[in-house]
Predict the 3D structure of the following.
Amino acid sequence: MRLKILSTMIGLPTVIATLLATETVWGDEQNQQLDTVVVTGTRSAGRTALASSVPVDVITSQRLQATGFSDLARALEFTAPSLNFPRAHTTPSAANTRAITLKGLSPDEVLVLINGKRWHPSVVINTNFAVGRGSAPYDLSTIPLAAVDHVEILRDGAAAQYGSDAIAGVVNIILRKDSSGGSLQTSTGITDRGDGAYGDIAVNKGFAVADGYINVTGEVLKQQSTNRAAVDQRYDRVTYQIGDPDALNINLAANAAFPVLNDSELYVTGLLSRKDSTNVAGFRTPGTSPLFPNGFGPQVNPILLDSGLTVGLRGILTEEVKYDLSNTFGASNADFRADNTANITLGSKSPTSFDAGSVNYLQNTVNASISRALPEILAGGNLSLGVEYRYEKYQIKSGEFTSYTGSGAAGFPGFNPRIPVDNNRDATGAFVDLDLKPLTWLTLGAAGRFDHYSDFGNATTGKFTMRAKANPWLSLRGSVGTGFRAPSLQQQFYSSTTSVANGANKAIVNVGTYQVGDPIAQALGATPLQAEKSQSANIGIVLTPLPKLSLTADFFRTDIDHRIALSDALTGPAVLAALKNAGVSDVQQAAFFTNAVNTRTQGYEVAMKYLGNLTDTVNYGVSMNYAHMPTQIRSIAANPKLPTLPLLSQHSLLLLTAAQPGDKLTSQFKVSDGIYEAILDVTRYGEYTDAPILDPQTFGAEVVVDLAVSARLSQMVKLTGGILNLANSYPDKLAQQDVAFKSFGGSFKYGEESPFGISGRTFFLSLNVDLP
């Protein structure tokens, strides 16, 4: 289904005019939904999203659950136009971490906070040819949706306030604080093809303890695989599995706070997640191994364990001075198995199951800050000061010998780094953040931060903000700032061999990824990684012509220098010579991380929200949001060692800049009488371009329509049924199938780039029971 954005924008004034002409009656709940106090992007107490100097989206738990999705990342994707959730479906490293992107940038260029505290990224790094290639993202599937109170999305660079990674912005996930009540939620669904069945159950409960609260959540999600592979015309049967993997996710969350001492409280946040999934790698043809005369699809089974714990103390030192001391620990571990496969080198003596090794990452952050209100200076203000210490550690543990010897286990050769990987680093930082109101209608802000990393050195960043309230219904806002992103330990030291369809005619070859200090990588042009540096600017307008109508428009530019990317899978005589000189014989291509490109992302985002009443008992809501966010290349670094060997191919460059939609429209139409409720979500994804087989291919814009209808069976029970992807939209099919026919037999109908997946229409049913 196609939809021209022009026609949408032409129709928008008509919609608004209709809304303005409608009589409205407002309750307190509706007022809260239109504008909400936020804690992201500001350290001044009581500031709302519409009164902020920078654009902040607030997405409530009701809005997230109304999407019909059980996982947080997918729910966010359909509510925020600048946020995308690229969903690779054949690559184990990309398909098993639910990463998000902001403004079309990389997944690791957005910072994720839990209750305002820096969370840890996933240990799994995306080495596949998919969106986010080369990044170690934050995995939002580790957070149970039922534990979320709301999400604040800061759509502005904020490294001067929060440190590394906040180049595109910040996603702050606020957990529930209820001291009573709760909910029991269960849902199930299946695609119209009869696959992809899932079942989810989640329990949330609040308890009042010692004049404070403990809020706990448990969630279990069982997902069956989907498969959209075509018949392999070489063998007249389906040989590939192309779709979502089988998965079992178990998530736990706890959020608590208790008063202690005088005017202070002890707070604790904990998360624990276990994910077990099975991904089928590329089909190995008959004759590849004597153990599988009819060919085989290797099964890659990663078991991911994530845990995080924040313990802190905050309170009031004097009437104006507040303090916050905290320690946040996070760990991400992934154990890999390869099943239903063989090590070709070992012939008939090969095992068919392998322990392929593991990767481990931990992060510990100590934070201390004070904040003082400045009511006596001009028209008021706020001053915050803080320091931070962070420790990180990264390890790769080798698999069993048979998993990596020779050609290694087909589909996922076991880890066996040429240089042992057991690395750590320290980072210290200090910041100052000042808000000042020279006049009652003018707010100015300035923030500065200094960070020192033990591995690459120093980074100094700054930011200035402004908000001017021209009259009660019109405000202007803007910001300029600098930022940085430190090269992650994963990017500096990751080392492995993977099987990738990247040979001639997309034949499967072994690609070695080597850390930048490896002689192989250095011989091919690797140099020590630098930090990414960014310059950003934002200018916007906020309109509230009616008390219940808000309109915002923000224009932005983000320039990033020295973007870190995983090089192309390099091949040719120079590569083979470097491999041979290092004694490596079972690898055909090589890759490493590099600061290879400078980019510019420039665009705008507009948003409209309106809530009203059709009658005394029937209310409705309309929201429309549009983001235009194309990225262009400003310059590409030459290979310093081998100038004739480019570090990034056209395919790699497109994954960085054009493989996500250049624009996106999200809209919701909701009507409710307190007993029955209907919600229609319409999301339009703009064009995107990649080179999945050989030449660049532009994939057309698509519209995804979701419909949900709810009925309150009693005061405490609500039943919801709906259809996701009502029109059964799919991305354009891959062109140039003939180029890869020898390797795939026409199995791949769709590429890895689809922003909304390839599962098609899905039916779901959910039941929510309020707990006392």
Remarks:
- The CA atoms of residues 25 and 616 lie 8 Å apart.
- The longest strand covers residues 593-613.
- The two ends are 45 Å apart (CA to CA).
